[in-house]
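Reply to dn_fold:

You asked what the input looked like. This is it:
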Amino acid sequence: MRGEGRPLPGGALVLVVLSAAVALIAAVSLASFGAPSAAAADPHAPCDDGVTGITGSADLVTYDAGSDTITAVCIKSGANMFNGEHKLVTSDGVVANCYTVSGIGTSKVKVQRTGTAGPDCQAISHIDVLTGPAPTPTSTPQAPEATPTGTPAAAGATATPTSTPHVLGEEEAPEQFPETGQGASPSTWDGLALVLGLSGLGLLGGAAALAAVAVRRRR
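and this is what came back:
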């Protein structure tokens, strides 16, 4: 049975102490300096997905994207410029009072050092460009032309005559309905027939009464 509390050999003790010291130093280094930056991991960030490492002279670099459109440029110059990293530029203009960028949005871009050369305006190391497909032109529909008023009819077209309604004159005016005393309306004839019918019945009744009286006298 192995005994408890047996001391480690001298060599093993030294190895354990050294391992602990290395681990402590590594932890302090990471805390002080941090993890490697993205720029160190990819030297062309943030234009690493484009065309990188385009060189020219210390004062001028150009690039032709052909049928593509340049959407952005990254400028890389000396360690004093942009903390030694790439400077992303997305529109034309002057950058850091040193570089003039022109051509973004087209197929050809130019980066030129227009400032005074010195520690605050260092030589251009290289540029990187981001490109995209050229925009599709959109056509604007044109409004139809208005036809001017009074335009003569096309040759061969037959004009349709327009008929004007005839206005009746005084001699052609329709005959007015007869006034009272000059004729009788249908309602007047109906009343007259009723009166004549009643009168006829009265006369027949009177004649029958006279006939009955005559018969009695004969008896």
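The CA atoms of residues 150 and 156 lie 17 Å apart.
Hope that clears it up.
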